[in-house]
Amino acid sequence: MVTHMATGTSASSAATRARAGRAGPPPGRWLLTEPARSALDLAGAGLAVPWLARAPRGDGHPILVLPGLLAGDTSTTVLRGFLLRLGYQPQGWGLGRNVGPTADVMAGLPQALERLARRAAVYSRRDGIVDWRGCIDPPGPRRQNIEVRCSHLGFGHDAATLWVVADRLALPAGEWAPFTPPRALRLLYPDQR
């Protein structure tokens, strides 16, 4: 998953960026309801256990799971547990709370991320922290933007996101195919209906 934080200081500049199709701050209603919507995302993941149990299985390779801004490895517990049950070797980043691009992070993460990168950007138009337009990759070969319907805080435990992660990680090394959810799950992905 790739997210980029967009910054803006005035309503007029945000409106100009929005008209131009560029990222800006998300609507205030999403920010104000983030914690409650994340709790609903977590409850939804619990209800989705029967179909998540049928997610594609892993091949045992290691996965580095990065926490969101101002979060630590605890925030990725559900995601790492899910990946472990699928047969991967998920690892937290082990750098404490993610306070942004510190010298230690800037020194070590770029190479680690490049080795592990698969080009699938998962985003949500309901993200209350980051404008979804700042989270998508430009179109290109072996790239895909996959929309889910979760809060920003819910990405690590949203059932639709968990399925996308399992599906993308199940691809054999060096291979790529576009994400296509199972027919029964297509309603969870707005761009896959």
Model description:
With 193 residues, this protein is of the alpha/beta class. It has one domain (27-192). It has helices at 11-19, 28-32, 34-47, 49-52, 77-85, 103-116, 159-169; strands at 62-65, 89-92, 120-124, 144-148. The protein has a two-stranded parallel sheet. The longest helix has 14 residues, at 34-47. Mean pLDDT is 82; it is low at 1-19.
Radius of gyration, in angstroms, nearest whole number: 17 Å
H and E order: HHHHEHEHEEH
Structural class by SSE content = alpha/beta
- Oligomer type: single chain
- Residue-averaged pLDDT: 82
Total beta-strand segments: 4
Strand order of the largest sheet: 1-2
How many structural domains can be distinguished in the coordinates? 1
Catalogue the unreliable spans.
1-19
Give a quick summary of the entry:
The protein has seven helices and four strands; from the N terminus they run ααααβαβαββα. It is of the alpha/beta class. It has one domain (27-192).
SSE blueprint:
Layout: H1 11-19, H2 28-32, H3 34-47, H4 49-52, E1 62-65, H5 77-85, E2 89-92, H6 103-116, E3 120-124, E4 144-148, H7 159-169
Parallel strand pairs: 1-2, 3-4
Provide keyphrases for this structure:
single chain; 193 residues; alpha/beta; two-stranded parallel ribbon; 7 helices; 4 strands; globular
